[in-house]
Amino acid sequence: MSSPSQPFHLVSPLLESLSLTKIVGAPVFLKMDNTQPSGSFKIRGIGHYCQQAATHDCQGFVCSSGGNAGLATAYVARKLNIPATVIVPSSTPDLTVQKLREYGASVQVFGQVWDDADREAHRLAESQGLKYVPPFDHPLIWQGHSTVVKELRDHLPTKPGAIVVAVGGGGLLCGVAEGVKEVGWEDVPIIAMETIGADSLNAAVKAGKLVTLPDITSEAKCLGAKTVCPRALEVTQQLPILSHVVTDQQALQAIKSFLDDERVLVELSCGAALGAIYSGLITRLQTQGQLPAQLGPLVVIVCGGSGINLDQLLKYQEKIMKG
Fold this sequence. Notes:
The chain has 323 residues and is an alpha/beta fold. It is built from 14 helices and ten strands. A six-stranded mixed beta sheet has the order 1-2-10-7-8-9, sandwiched between helices. Strands 5-4-3-6 form a four-stranded parallel beta sheet, sandwiched between helices. The mean pLDDT is 91.
């Protein structure tokens, strides 16, 4: 069992990508959070949250998840020797459900989308006296995620020209926003990427208020929160955050190109962030004057994700390309 004083996440590698640098025309650095113990950045925030909760007579954790938050919860619960229940929507890949069970979590499938699973997780927390683990909407989660920026400060040669993140519920965005404030990088643009059909932040930014999507129609189910957390919209009004979307096809093409270029397979949700480069968005933002023509190091947070293997990639290929 891990010492409660030690974080569960690792300092992830920061790699310069020659292939992506060539596309952008500026140095591109990849923050490889796909190498975290649970397979994604989620362990930063969830590890921190669970560590704090474990000091208060915790009988068990319950988490709602499309996959990665559940895997982080299950991993940490196992290390702390505390039972974990993960509620997943029916859209969750079998691969993820299998991994959750391998980590020792009790898995329940409930509802069509994450929002349904989340309501059930809250109900279970209340009825069974379990500690609810928020997948993205809590200050302790953001505090944990902010560590990614401190690592960038410690390992980048200079201040970044921009940071690219994928957005689902908004936890990573809130953490990066907190991190840039802490290290004095408030002027660094943050490019917040979603897929069309899971774009609750983009809809909120356009409306100037929180928007609840009628449904999640993107195949990037890990980005599938119908409403982004309120703090995510707030930070877009406080910092230079550029909210943009790619199609599922562009996200899929991005993860395939990334596999060819870097020999690393990541989830479709991560393809939203990578899609900023592969779809030509960064270059367009430079042309439009929203990013400087002479761009400093561009950092992409490779958020990872465990719900992918070759079989799942082929399923996406068949489903998305048909659509």
